Structure to design on (97 residues):
């Protein structure tokens, strides 16, 4: 399994739409957390985006999962940055294969 850091950059003026969709987005992410796919997630303090930490087989699997996010079906995400991550210290250390 591979650990990925996924950064969402929210579209300008998307606050209202995000607030409307947030319950569905949190249900989606909560279910993935229960399954051990999302290790952590949350918005940035400035409201400009969010960081999500995933553990998946590969990037193709991750992309398939991200397409199911209720936020992805709207225009609230202006950009996504996906980076393979190898945590070596802390609670996520040793998770990457």
């Amino acid at each position: 399994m591979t650990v990925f850091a996924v950064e969402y950059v929210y579209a300008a003026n998307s606050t209202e739409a995000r607030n409307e969709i947030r319950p569905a987005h949190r249900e989606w992410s909560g279910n993935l957390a229960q399954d051990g796919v999302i290790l952590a997630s949350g918005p940035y303090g400035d409201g400009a985006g969010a960081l999500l930490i995933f553990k998946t087989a590969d990037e193709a699997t991750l992309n398939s999962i991200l397409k199911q996010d209720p936020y992805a079906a709207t225009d609230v995400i202006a950009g996504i940055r996906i980076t393979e991550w190898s945590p070596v210290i802390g609670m996520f250390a040793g998770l990457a294969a």
User: Anything to note?
Assistant: The chain has a mean pLDDT of 94. The longest strand covers residues 2-10. The radius of gyration is 13 Å.
